[in-house]
Amino acid sequence: MRRRLVVLTGAAGFVGSAVLRRLAARYPDAVVRVVSRRPLPASAHRGPWVRADLADPTSLRGVCDGADVLLSLASYIGPDADRCTAVNAAGTAALTAEARAAGVGRIVQLSTCAVYGTGPHRGQDVAELTPAPVSPASSSRLAGERPVLDAGGLVLRAGLVLGPGDRWAVPALVDSFRRVPARWGGGTGRASFVDVDDLARLVAAFALGEGPAAAATGVLHAHHPLPVRNGDLMDALAAHGVLPARPAGHRPWAACLEDLAANPGWVSERQFTLLAGDHWYRADEAWRLAGVDPGPGPLARLGRAARWYRERGGAVPG
Q1: CA–CA distance, 218 with 182 (Å, rounded to integer)
Q2: Mean pLDDT by 10-residue block, N- to C-terminus, for the chain (318 residues)?
Q3: How far apart are the first and last CA of the chain?
Q4: What is the pLDDT of residue 143?
Q5: Which residues of 109-128 are buried (b: 16+ CB within 10 A; e: fewer)?
Q6: Which residues does 93 contact at the CB level (< 8 Å), separation at least 6?
């Protein structure tokens, strides 16, 4: 039988590189065609590579020819609104059009639960929520979902992703804790997190798995089914030396926002709210359909990322 060909965008990124490793380990007979602006190191990928840029739709012509699966994992999540639109909305639409023209039978896209906005959200499933994005990044990523869904593809909305290579979630928490060194609102806020390698297992199963995994379409939440309490996450980070020992007392929510505003840093009030408030979503269905065990959860995986987080601290994402 012909070896299945997977087209992968975002392979140089945090999640995409983990998915690339998982595909090589779990599906060694598949061929992965990496689509990126620059070639990956030989140690990361020895398969075919196509130079293309999502912000330049003309560069995408033919990238999906002969492919069986498109894994659309590339995105831009910075502050440049025009680039957000060019990459996340227009670029994804052009890439999906290429896949449809080439007859690609399976399209899987990685999106984000940030499309739901500021919340609070407490355990809702996809059908129980109406997206209300508040940033150019999340608005454009929501727009990029539409062509994939129109093509009969699968959109995976992930929560906050942890692991070596994370430049956003824990660094934002470190910056926030430096400015507000207390238990934020008692540390009771819960959010949806997932370890990057666990997310990679889920994405790979939906790309090349069989049965319900191969048939899944629409939108699914893609993170660990159990939410993580903010206080528990910060205690775990302190145990790994990423944060200093936390004070026993806690600050009321209004006082936390005052402290955040009074002390300079890069995390905005909206981002702080996403980290410290209730933003968790039901995700059991994705793991059931994929036939994948979600594992013990992201806190149990923190040890292998501790060195990365200690060295990075609260640095501004680059």
Answers
A1: 40
A2: 90 97 96 95 91 96 98 95 98 98 98 95 97 96 98 98 97 96 91 98 97 97 97 94 79 93 95 94 98 97 97 92
A3: 43
A4: 98
A5: bbbbbbbbbebebeeeebee
A6: 144, 146, 147
